[in-house]
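Quick one: structure for this chain?
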Amino acid sequence: MQARILCIERKRAESPSFIPGLRKKGFLVETVTTGAEAVLCLSQFKPDLVIVNAASLRTNGKRICKALRESLSNLPIVLIIDSIHNSNEEDCANVILKLPFTARKLVNRITPFLHGNPDSIIKAGLIQLDMDRKTVNCGELETRLTPRLANLLKILMEHQGEAVTRETLFTVVWKTSYTGDTRTLDVHISWLRHAIEKDPRRPVFLKTIRGVGYRLDI
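Got it. Here's what it folds into:
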């Protein structure tokens, strides 16, 4: 499966572009020219990592990184700046690279974020959950999950074939014993079905066990 990289970059003669090199290495690269376009692109392209080439945008890139963080808090961000911009200790990106540097250095820095830790992978039949990257793959479907959705799916996968009670799910995932707001759990289950089911209205994997809770059938 190709790693997906979203690159925010403008073509400028004085600023190098790393996009051809990334594509040559086999990455699937989508490009936009503004932070606003990037935020809109997140849900459609579902990138594994974002590169903010602030040097080509003639900015420090911090505002763009903040907007990306607000949209997907666990999304790895690489910020490229030029020598006139200072990188301080603000947590605006996972990696900050100051020009000049080689394409090989960029690839070396992004690779750890794209190759999941095998210990973080949970498999159940066609379903593969990466707890580090918060992504789930099921057949041709690939979806990025929120931390809570990932934890919810993890519990169901660890107890595949068993009916997991609503009380257990609220206790483990929401850290509460209050089960009065059943709508919250139902909505999260619906989101999971959209992530793993071909037809979420007729679920094959994630079944409702009336009066009990939910069961993941593999």
